[in-house]
Design brief:
Layout lengths: L1 E5 L5 H7 L6 E4 L5 H14 L5 E8 L1 H8 L15 E2 L2 E8 L6 E7 L13 H20 L8 E4 L3 H14 L8 E3 H4 L3 H4 L5 E2 L1 H17 L5 E5 L1 E4 L2 H5 L5 E10 L6 H24 L4 H17 L3 H8 L1 H4 L2 H19 L3 H9 L1 H17 L7
Helix pairs in contact: 4-5, 11-14, 14-15
């Protein structure tokens, strides 16, 4: 079964793209929130037992969307700073009831929210009130707080909508400033691409989710996220008649599923024990100081991450790979890598501390307490 939709009239792009799959299709339109709609309906379908596998997909194209909802590109109109740029792209996810590396643990379907805004060039402001309503209702429905999520990710509010959303949620008693990121602000580089307030379109949230968010859930970097694709419901008729732009959202709560079986414990014990045994051999049979052995383990984890070998090892061994110091090296490497991508060379000095702050603090505190209780001495 397939749930698909796009921004073109009658979902033409989706129908042409999936015609050869020869599967039952439900055509959707949720504007830029279509991926959220497809994932939500697909998850409910699988959970109810109506399908074993569901394909949820969407797409958008810059040229066609601009012509459909704003102005033809040939017109050459000036874009205000609040305007967003439609993402050209497509993304798809296969949902299944069997064991996977990521799971949809809950869904909050949004209501249509109309704040009377009529500026189709400022979709972020149109969608922010709907985002506030859906996110706050999700917190109330599931009795959760923002701190319980690694990230709360909206679809395409952009720089304008983000500020409005944070202010509206603070009025309701929720501060998500630490957790919130927006796909529209991630998909483009504002400085080099001059894309105004950010990205938009069905493919904005979809491509960022499939290429950036989902891999981090699957590898356990993020344990729980709230994915909230945003959509402004408008058309040429709405624009010509100066009617208000309404907004609609779907929120899905994603988890990294826990693996629990006897082999997991055995594999963690064997790999973790082997790492500790090798470190003990170095400590007993060589003149290496404990500090140098610890540094060697950290560097080994960083090198394994660089060679893309640590994640397969962690998938096999679980805590047996992540708890020893090679896991610390893996976190250090990933923290620096992400910070360099975001902030350039400054990330070399910031990323490691940000990613490993908890581990460094614990090592300092417990190391100091151990020194007070016991009598440390140098190795002869």
């Amino acid at each position: 079964m397939i749930f698909a939709g796009d921004l073109l009239a009658q979902s033409i792009a989706s129908s042409f793209g999936i015609v050869e799959l020869e599967r039952p299709v439900y055509g959707l339109f949720g504007a830029c929130s279509t991926m959220g709609e497809a994932l939500s309906l697909g998850a409910m379908t699988v959970a109810a037992g109506y399908a074993e596998h569901v394909l949820s997909l969407t797409s958008s194209h810059f040229g066609s969307a601009e012509k459909e909802f704003r102005f033809p590109l040939a017109y050459g109109n000036q874009r205000p700073p609040s305007a967003t740029w439609t993402v050209t792209g497509s993304a798809a996810c296969v949902l299944a009831g069997s064991k996977t590396k990521a799971e949809i643990a809950g869904i909050t379907s949004g209501k249509i929210v109309d704040y009377g805004l009529k500026d189709s060039q400022n979709m972020g402001a149109c969608m922010a009130p709907a985002a506030c309503d859906t996110i706050s209702r999700h917190f109330m429905d599931f009795n959760r707080q923002p701190e319980e999520y690694d990230h709360i990710i909206t679809g395409d509010l952009g720089t304008v909508g983000k500020e409005i959303l944070l202010e509206l949620l603070q009025q309701k008693g929720y501060d998500i400033s630490r957790q919130h990121i927006d796909c529209g602000m991630l998909v483009y580089d504002e400085k080099s691409q001059d894309t105004g307030a950010g990205g938009s379109g069905c493919a904005c949230a979809a491509t960022v989710f499939a290429s950036y968010i989902l891999p981090r859930i699957e590898d356990g970097t993020w344990k729980r996220i709230l994915f909230v694709p945003t959509g402004a419901l408008m058309s040429r008729s709405v624009f010509m008649r100066a009617r208000a732009c309404r907004a609609l959202l779907r929120a899905s709560w994603w988890n990294t599923p826990e693996r629990r079986n006897d082999m997991d414990y055995l594999q963690a014990f064997l790999v973790g024990g082997l790492i500790c045994a090798l470190a003990q051999i170095l400590l007993d049979r060589t003149k290496m100081m404990p500090g140098r052995i610890m540094v060697l383990l950290v560097c080994t984890g960083a090198v394994l991450s660089f060679l893309t070998l640590f994640e397969p090892l962690q998938e096999f061994a679980g805590a047996g790979a992540s708890v020893p110091l090679i896991g610390f090296g893996h976190l250090l490497f990933n923290g620096v890598k992400e910070a360099v991508n975001e902030k350039g060379i400054l990330g070399l000095f910031m990323g490691g501390f940000k990613a490993c702050a908890a581990g460094i603090s614990a090592a300092l505190i417990f190391g100091y307490l151990s020194g007070l209780i016991f009598k440390p001495k140098m190795k002869k």
